[in-house]
Amino acid sequence: MLRVDVSKQLGEFSIEATFASEGRVTGLFGASGAGKTSLINMIAGLLRPDRGVIAIDGETLDDTTTNLHVPAHRRRIGYVFQDARLFPHLDVRQNLDYGRRMNRLADDPAQRARVTDLLDIGSLLDRRPGQLSGGERQRVALGRALLAQPRLLLLDEPLGSLDEERKIEILPYLVRLRDEAGVPMVYVSHDAGEMRQLATQVVMLRRGRVIAFGGAEVLPGG
What we know:
The strands form two sheets. Strands 7-8-9-3-10-11 form a six-stranded mixed beta sheet, with helices on both faces. The radius of gyration is 17 Å and the shape is globular. The protein is about 30% helix and about 30% strand. It is of the alpha/beta class.
């Protein structure tokens, strides 16, 4: 369960968002500038709300009434950005291992093999990011986030920088993550088609406000 009840002033723009989701994939849907990235940055701990509460599975991460703010590195939340953000000087194997080492987790070869198989990246392990396609880089970024053993995975427009062919390539892997990885996700997109394929619950945002919450039927054309 992800519970969010926050407000935040960002210059002239403000966010007032309240929702509680038990979905395997909670979609944050809205046009560019709706406040989607600012909202997941608050969930990640990168932005502090001015007012409110954020909690995951009963554990409170932010509560402004008690000045509680769990720092990002202690939240056990994985974050996959639009541009993958792999380390260019490390090969895929080393990039995959980065999150585990940063979180001081024991090496788990079985889990590494599961994630590598799930994302079909076993043949890429010795390559550098510069030798990968955009879709391959995003699959490696997903693997790195999963191997850090997060309790929640945030995906901020992970297909946004890909062409249509690469989007079609990577969408089935995101569906597999939803169905097989066992890690709840928050998925940010302005693409209703992506949301219909992936999200089990949708938070619809407009100008920093939640205007609808529910299943795929709240999406345009649903």
